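Q: Here's a chain of 329 amino acids. Please give me its 3D structure as tokens.
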Amino acid sequence: MRHARFFWLALLILIVPVSSFAGVFISVNIAPPALPVYEQPPCPADGYIWTPGYWAYAPGGYYWVPGTWVMPPTVGVLWTPGYWGWGDGVYVWHAGYWGPHIGFYGGVNYGFGYFGNGYEGGYWRDRHFYYNRTVNNVTITNVHIYNKTVINNVTVNRISYNGGRGGINARPTHEQEMWGREHHFEATSLQRGHERDAGHNREFFASQNHGRPPVAATPRPREFQGPRVMPAREARVPRPEARPIPGPSGRDRAYEHPVSHEEMHGGRPPQSGRDYRPENAGPRDNGHGHDNGGPHGNGGPRDNGGPHGNGNPHENGPQHEGHSDHGHN
């Protein structure tokens, strides 16, 4: 009987994926695969923030956790992605987290605003999240958007880990080290369930899909089926992609002013408000990470298009390294 208990315990350890979130130490002696190329599904509704896909690890090997749109745990926080880093002869997983600033994530270019340093996908202001439509697939109305000036620049880079042989050579700045010690929120329960579900599907394992998972990105956590689910694509010959230009610091945001629905159609742009500071606001009781008031726009949220086509900034294929990290926080 005792041997039977040990047998079932060992079997359970083999079939249950290892959690990649805070509180669990994971180390592996082989490097993770390259990041797959995929398109970003359209943002499902106001308040969602993009969290890029990553390779997690289980006893069966590396498996892909699809990128997805997630509601943050509270207003004013941003997602710092997790990353694999080489140290003491093994690759160690550094879990992602929600916080008022974007911390260090290994210099990994996950795409969609996470270009290896900081975040160019949007920022909080007046309890609303403003989306940079240049790097995000935002097609809904009744949402705050802006278009940041871009230039064409390309660096081919799909490396998914920091340090070690062939890894990214990047180190945290002094600011990023300080931000890493701030008060953080762990991944939400939906994010944890999203990773757990992915680990239960053998098709998501690199040993099965050879680095091209059948589901690379989803519109919401745990939604692995439907027309908005994005598969991995074959890596293409790189072409110029959009890259944010470092802009002026401080409050001068004339180069990236928010664009309302009215302004898109020739109306008068809204006056700029004060930037939101997350430390001055408490958690929202609706848990949706955005105000209940009506943002700019003239109707309820609606999706008016599918994913963007090939060769646009809403694909995470070969993109640039190096960008402004002046911050959207």
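Q: Can you summarize the key feature?
A: The chain has a mean pLDDT of 75.
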